[in-house]
Amino acid sequence: MGEFDLIARYFTRPVRPGGGVALGVGDDCALLAPAPGMQLAVSCDMLVEGRHFFADVDPAHLGHKALAVNLSDLAACGARPLAFTLALALPRVDELWLQAFAGGLLRLADEHGCALVGGDTTAGPLNICITVFGEVPAGQALLRSGARAGDDIWVSGTLGDARLALEALQGRVQVPAGMLAAARARLETPTPRVALGLQLRGIATSALDVSDGLLGDLGHILRASGVGAEIDVDEVSKLIAASALSTGDRGHFDTELLRQCTLAGGDDYELAFTAPPARREAVARAAAAAATPVARIGRIRAEPGLRLVDAQGRALAGRYASFDHFAG
Amino acid sequence: MGEFDLIARYFTRPVRPGGGVALGVGDDCALLAPAPGMQLAVSCDMLVEGRHFFADVDPAHLGHKALAVNLSDLAACGARPLAFTLALALPRVDELWLQAFAGGLLRLADEHGCALVGGDTTAGPLNICITVFGEVPAGQALLRSGARAGDDIWVSGTLGDARLALEALQGRVQVPAGMLAAARARLETPTPRVALGLQLRGIATSALDVSDGLLGDLGHILRASGVGAEIDVDEVSKLIAASALSTGDRGHFDTELLRQCTLAGGDDYELAFTAPPARREAVARAAAAAATPVARIGRIRAEPGLRLVDAQGRALAGRYASFDHFAG
């Protein structure tokens, strides 16, 4: 089976007219036609076996995740998904694998009206590279650079479950089976917070998606905005979903593990964002409209640096290093 | 050295204001702002070691080629390069390698005013995935579907040298050192025909870039346009540059090797295009304005199929399979 047949069979679908896509798969280029006044938000992520996923991962989950991590970047900018390209290196042509992978990928794409408009397929060690395109009105994109002293710091959804699943799957932590299944779903099929990102336009002063661990990613906002922050570590620890499934006293998870997973776990694909305290009701309305829970976990300070405090306001000294694809 | 430092050191450069790029590297997304009335042409290519390049290739050449093959797709659509994203999986952080790779890549990017606006870096088997963006006035993109019976078939530059170099480097053909150097330059540092693609807007009825071999790629035009073609194989054989460096009688290259390389060699990154015979002078002016030679190699026919003839008009039976990244 040749390269072109392979692409055609699993990944070519008719592009609906309109919707910002003038020409889809099948020519040298796809043609995007953003609406007047719109800018095109572009992001790109590459997933490698053994680094971003296990060799035995369900290919449908992998297809979902490969697109989800890219949609998460659009969400962080407040952009509406439009289209994506897929480049795929495969060690062999395995039709069952491809069918499942394409199924997981295209199901999520359909949920977000995001058309597959082009790409490339080659033989090689398994590698998935997606570039995603979204529309955002000129000047309205959420950036990392807008946080101001006094702003609240918010985070969506849950934190740390993906890392807990990773720790358990690699045998470093014991987790009950039901809890592991739920945590593993967060690791393998994260939910990009696209609806929340769209609702936060005009409300959030800065935003990014939490992919490498909360503290490390927050650091990008602090550097880009020239500010510091204080984070309530106990508030953040509550955001792990797995603890709610535990025995009420958080079972056998110690405080340190919870902090490590929620503060620096990685693979969360939640939005962290800032907004002035005067906009708390607006944030709550945005979260409700997006059907996405949000929690307030700290505030931006004029003094540089990241200060970690517990519920009693006591400073913590612990270091919570973020996941780094070369250091990790 | 962490992932972010690595990206920052070699690939982050200030984006000049205007030029269609509103925000470059450093946020969750880049922001492109195509001029009013413009569509955005998008293409994506993935290069894998051992499949698209040798492990010992000069990294500066590799950087050049990784972008060149993408710019070639923009050229085929008549789009002006605007920006690109780079995703890179590296087995290790080798600063000398990165410096050379970035040098070759960014030099070509600068020649075409094409800004690096984002990307991803990860550990993994060497893999280079570039997605490129260009601007083209709405409705003016050169497509594969516009060829009409009676149109001339043209091709730019030279054909077959890259394949000749590949055959020689893999020990299947003996080639004099000087000739190999020239042919290898075509393999490793192809010239994307961007200027020609821009000049051919409004003249060519169809176009594509020759990346997998002339005949196989022409097949895409024929299928997309619902037509057939007759190709003068002897005209095509003349387009190999290496033969001109030979001894006049084409040295030791036999006719079959020349045909194989020029008709089905792959890695040429020339433009194949069609235009009505009435536009021959316009094509010549476009080629002169782009300082790119073009040659007329056949014509489009209403009857389906690809008919190969020699200089005397005799039909040839030989099959010239194109390079396929799974069959090859």
TrEMBL record, chains A, B:
Name a GO molecular-function annotation: magnesium ion binding
State the InterPro entries in the record.
PurM-like_C_dom (IPR010918), PurM-like_C_sf (IPR036676), PurM-like_N (IPR016188), PurM-like_N_sf (IPR036921), ThiL-like (IPR006283)
Catalytic activity, as annotated: thiamine phosphate + ATP = thiamine diphosphate + ADP
State which pathway it belongs to.
Cofactor biosynthesis; thiamine diphosphate biosynthesis; thiamine diphosphate from thiamine phosphate: step 1/1
Question: Biological process (GO) annotations?
Answer: thiamine biosynthetic process; thiamine diphosphate biosynthetic process
Residues reported to bind substrate: 52, 267, 323
Which positions does UniProt annotate for Mg(2+) 3 binding? 28, 73, 209
Detail which positions bind Mg(2+) 5: 212
Q: Which residues bind Mg(2+) 4?
A: 28, 43, 73
Q: What is its EC number?
A: 2.7.4.16
An example Pfam family from this entry, by short name, is AIRS
Per UniProt, Mg(2+) 2 binds at 45, 73
| Chain residues that bind ATP | 119-120, 144, 211
Q: What class of enzyme is it?
A: transferase
Family matches, as Gene3D superfamilies:
PurM-like C-terminal domain, PurM-like, N-terminal domain
Q: Which residue range or ranges hold the PurM-like N-terminal domain?
A: 26-136
Where the record annotates domain PurM-like C-terminal, the positions are 181-309
Q: Which SUPFAM superfamilies match?
A: PurM C-terminal domain-like, PurM N-terminal domain-like
Q: Quick one: which residues bind Mg(2+) 1?
A: 45, 120
Alphabetically list the UniProt keywords.
ATP-binding, Kinase, Magnesium, Metal-binding, Nucleotide-binding, Thiamine biosynthesis, Transferase
To which protein family does this belong? Answer: Belongs to the thiamine-monophosphate kinase family.
Its annotated function is as follows: Catalyzes the ATP-dependent phosphorylation of thiamine-monophosphate (TMP) to form thiamine-pyrophosphate (TPP), the active form of vitamin B1.
What other facts are recorded? Answer: Reaction mechanism of ThiL seems to utilize a direct, inline transfer of the gamma-phosphate of ATP to TMP rather than a phosphorylated enzyme intermediate.
Concerning PANTHER family, the annotation shows: THIAMINE-MONOPHOSPHATE KINASE (PTHR30270)
Name of the protein this chain belongs to? Thiamine-monophosphate kinase
Q: Which organism is it from?
A: Alicycliphilus denitrificans (strain DSM 14773 / CIP 107495 / K601)
Please name the taxonomic classification of the source: Bacteria, Pseudomonadati, Pseudomonadota, Betaproteobacteria, Burkholderiales
Q: Name the gene.
A: thiL
